[in-house]
């Protein structure tokens, strides 16, 4: 990771680790679960070379950033507050936003709450999801997908952590990042991640090396998974806190990029929303939806060059050099 600088910045009452490289207009990269700044290693180098300042934090609760102990410290208001303070610390008025998985959910909230800070948003894998006026998220997930749906299984504090501990961080991260099974992820109460011997036998793909896995595992072995899991545990609280934004549109230029095998994209109802007019209605400045054939959920790593080209093509429309 030649030339990538690492620093700690104090934002919104916590110490946040960021990785950055380059000079110019800021491109802010937000990772998902179970990931770290490191998921953007290819993008940091590529966009620095293209004349941008690439910045990728470890989000609250992840990696080397502080992880508050209270579950209620992980709401959308806290995490967006972190991003607003981070942008301010970078000495810029606006950033280009690129985000994946949970980072994309944070990104949608950031665009909703503080559109003045975002020039354009490239969302990877997770489209905008409007707030349901009546149905709480977990209640809806239980009804549609059952109590083994992964977000439902993450709700009880400590339970998933103890199940992960039985496998070890490396095995769980390996299983999640290499699993290309489409459709909503299910974690059975017995052997939620499958047989450990089968996980050992999984051959890592070309885009994710043993060194990459060791880096992820070292951070999660040291800091645990609780911080990341707490994002799921405040889904219903986020729903309560955002009642004032029911029906709100996102008024930022957006490009959506997803793999056709992605677990979110292949969840029932999602393709209809993305391509059937619902997404465009909620995000009027949606410029394009790119579906990458044969790609799974972790497309920024799996298809780095292709994804970089799509992102660059989009943000250069709004760049000033």
TrEMBL record:
Physiological role: Epoxide hydrolase involved in the biosynthesis of cucurbitacin and mogroside tetracyclic triterpene natural products (e.g. siamenoside I and mogrosides IV, V and VI). Cucurbitacins have cytotoxic properties and exhibit deterrent taste as a defense barrier against herbivores. Mogrosides are nonsugar highly oxygenated compounds used as high-intensity zero-calorie sweeteners; they also possess pharmacological properties such as regulating immunity, lowering blood sugar and lipid levels, protecting the liver, and acting as antioxidants and antitumor agents.
Entry EC number(s): 3.3.2.10
Presence of keyword Hydrolase: yes
Pfam families: Abhydrolase_1
GO molecular function: epoxide hydrolase activity
Annotated family: Belongs to the AB hydrolase superfamily. Epoxide hydrolase family.
InterPro entries, A to Z: AB_hydrolase_1, AB_hydrolase_fold, Epox_hydrolase-like
Organism per entry: Fraxinus pennsylvanica
Protein name: soluble epoxide hydrolase
Domain AB hydrolase-1: 26-130
Keywords: Hydrolase
Keyword Hydrolase annotated: yes
Catalytic reaction list: (24S)-24,25-epoxycucurbitadienol + H2O = (24R)-24,25-dihydroxycucurbitadienol; an epoxide + H2O = an ethanediol
This protein's pathway: Secondary metabolite biosynthesis; terpenoid biosynthesis
């Amino acid at each position: 990771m030649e030339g990538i600088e690492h620093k700690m910045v104090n934002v919104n009452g916590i110490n946040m680790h960021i990785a950055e490289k380059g000079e110019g207009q800021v491109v802010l990269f937000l990772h998902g679960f179970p990931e770290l700044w490191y998921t953007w290693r290819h993008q940091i180098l590529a966009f620095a070379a293209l004349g941008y300042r690439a910045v990728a934090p470890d989000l609250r609760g992840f990696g080397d950033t502080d992880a508050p102990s209270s579950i209620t410290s992980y709401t959308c208001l806290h995490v967006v507050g972190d991003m607003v303070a981070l942008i301010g610390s970078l000495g810029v008025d606006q950033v280009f936003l690129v985000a994946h998985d949970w980072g994309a959910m944070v990104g949608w909230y950031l665009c909703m709450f503080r559109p003045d800070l975002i020039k354009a948003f490239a969302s990877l894998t997770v489209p905008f999801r409007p707030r349901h006026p009546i149905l709480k998220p977990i209640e809806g997930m239980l009804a549609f997908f059952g109590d083994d749906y992964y977000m439902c299984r993450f709700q009880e504090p400590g339970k998933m952590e103890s199940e992960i501990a039985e496998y070890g961080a490396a095995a769980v991260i390996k299983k999640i990042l290499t699993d290309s099974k489409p459709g909503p992820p299910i974690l059975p109460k017995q052997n939620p991640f499958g047989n450990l011997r089968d996980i050992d036998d999984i051959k890592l793909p070309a885009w994710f090396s043993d060194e990459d896995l060791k880096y992820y595992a070292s951070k999660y072995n040291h800091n645990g998974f609780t911080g990341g899991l707490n994002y799921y545990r405040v889904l219903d609280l986020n729903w309560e806190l955002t009642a004032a934004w029911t029906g709100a549109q996102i008024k930022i230029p957006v490009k959506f990029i997803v793999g056709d095998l992605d677990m979110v994209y292949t969840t029932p109802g999602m393709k209809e929303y993305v391509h059937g007019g619902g997404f465009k209605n909620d995000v009027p400045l949606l410029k394009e939806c790119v579906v990458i054939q044969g790609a799974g959920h972790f497309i920024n790593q799996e298809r780095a060059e292709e994804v970089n080209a799509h992102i660059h093509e989009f943000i250069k429309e709004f760049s000033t050099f």
